[in-house]
Amino acid sequence: MNRNFIDYLDTFQEKNDTDISLTDYHLLNNYILTNYYYNNFYQDHLHHMKSIHHQQVTRPSSLYYDCYSQSNWNSGQDMNLESNYDMWKKNNEFRLDVSNDSFHMALPPSPISQKKQKVTIDTNIVAIDDLIRIINSYEVSDTIEYNIDLESLHNIKDELHKLNNMIGMVELKKTILYQLLYFIQKLHEGKNTSDFKHTVIYGPPGTGKTEIAEIIGTLYSKLGILKKNVFKKVTRSDMIAGYLGQTAIKTKTVIEESLGGVLFIDEAYSLAPDSSENSDSYSKECLDTLCEALSDHKHDLMVIIAGYEDELNNTFFRVNKGLESRFIWRFYTDSYTNQELNEIFHKKIIEQEWTTGIDTIEMNKWFETRMEHYPYFGRDMELLLMYTKIAHSRRVYGKPIEEIRSITIDDLNEGQSLFLSNKKKQKNKTVSVSLQAMYV
Q1: How far is CA 369 from CA 151, 214, 349, 418, in A?
Q2: What percent helix, strand, coil does the chain show, rounded to 5?
Q3: Span 131-137, mean pLDDT?
Q4: Do 371 and 248 sit in the same domain of this protein?
Q5: In 3-state terms, what secondary structure has residue 139?
Q6: Where are the beta strands (DSSP E) in 79-198?
Q7: 192 or 195: which carries more pLDDT confidence?
Q8: 3 state SS of 342
Q9: Rounded Cα distance, 273 and 286, in Å
Q10: Are 104 and 1 in contact (CB under 8 A)?
């Protein structure tokens, strides 16, 4: 019967005294039992076996005993079993021929490692597509040595696809690519290195800033640059309290919960003071605490803030001059064109497993004449699709099954009417609340 040596050891404890042969004992005594750390069970167990007398045990002269006399398992060192078991198993996984209470153990392969084949990958990288092309063209192999860290690229394959599939953002993707190539080569590490990972994403609402921040956080978590897959999104209320002293405590708590990952502050200008004197004190306390943490935890924390460029520069960065120098990475999300807005809308239709028979050219023209109604881009596309589906539900009620979940131009026009009607109601409600506040 042929089986692995590791399997032999794993089943040894299940044997009865009568099942243990003298040859078994010789193997275990010379190969394993001489190790101080691992022999507790076997020494205690074997020396009480009636089927084997102590005087019968002599050290065999066979080569397969002596060749392991200097192995890690016989070194007398206290080694961690869990961390070293895989290495030990790899070095000692050879065959046993066990039959009729005797066995023959073959010598293991030579410990000299096999020479790896060297392969040079073209690294003319100008876009995320180039990294994806490399991943699709080359597999990680123990027998091949590449000129780049291919395994790390394979680890972030899904995130690269997500980023690359986002509509538009050509310049932003290029900047993220530069940041990625910098960190993946660990060029931020070294003696007296003081590089920060903190990042600003400029852009209007609805341009995917939160999604981008989440992708960045996952990228660097999988690369080991961030030690935990933590993504904490906060607002002003999570960091600023109603009285002095407590704001610093709230801010420190948020920072501690984000260590090892990403702290994302959307519309970060809301942390800056408003017109009231007390608000100025609370905000300054928050931003001073944050600024200190940006330096103290630069190795295990990535803070990403987002918002309009002018508002961030005139509020957030104005309160504490030290903040700006700590956010060295700047990304820009541009406003979408009518074609890109159409692509976003169509993508959401597909994701929700609906269809549309509207021609692409017709859809582009439709959005081109209505762009002013959708200043929040991606957010507005979610609302437009919801109202379009509501309009569709009224039209197809009682109709054949093949018409259901297929959006027409009539559905889209009616959906926009619902969108604008609800938008007007929200605007009137906001104005009404503001007027009421004037007379309180």
Answers
A1: 48, 33, 21, 17
A2: 55, 10, 35
A3: 96
A4: no
A5: coil
A6: 95-99, 102-105, 117-119, 144-146
A7: 195
A8: helix
A9: 10
A10: no
Q: Which residue has the higher pLDDT, 275 or 244?
A: 244
Q: What is the pTM of this model?
A: 0.67
* Residues ≥6 apart with Cβ < 8 Å to 319: 272, 273, 283, 284, 287
Of 332, 362, 392, the position where a domain reaches its end is 332
Of the pLDDT bands very low, low, confident and very high (cuts 50, 70, 90), residue 435 is very low
- Name the domain count of the chain: 3
Q: For 292, how many CA atoms within 13 A lie in the half-sphere containing its CB?
A: 9
Is 80 exceeded by the pLDDT of residue 399? yes
Same structural domain, 321 and 351: no
Q: How confident is the model at residue 394 (pLDDT cuts 50, 70, 90)?
A: very high
- Please report how many Cα atoms fall inside a 13 Å half-sphere around the Cα of residue 180, on the Cβ side: 27
Query: Over the chain, what is the mean pLDDT?
Result: 80
Give the mean model confidence (pLDDT) for residues 221-250. Answer: 92
Exposure on the CB side of residue 60, measured as CA atoms within 13 A: 16
Please report whether residue 127 resides in a domain: no
Shared-domain flag, residues 168 and 269? yes
Containing domain of residue 416, as a range? 338-438
How many CA atoms within 13 Å lie on the side-chain side of 89?
A: 12
Last residue of a domain, one of 82, 105, 128: 105
Average pLDDT over residues 164-181: 93
Q: Closest Cα partner for 329 from 432, 153, 183?
A: 183
All residues at 6 or more sequence positions from 56 whose CB lies less than 8 Å from its CB, including other chains: 22
Distance CA 166, CA 208 (A): 8
Residue 150 included in any domain: no
> How would residue 273 be classed by pLDDT, with cut points 50, 70 and 90?
confident
Closest among 290, 289, 296 to 194, alpha carbons compared? 296
Q: Which residue has the higher pLDDT, 116 or 427?
A: 116
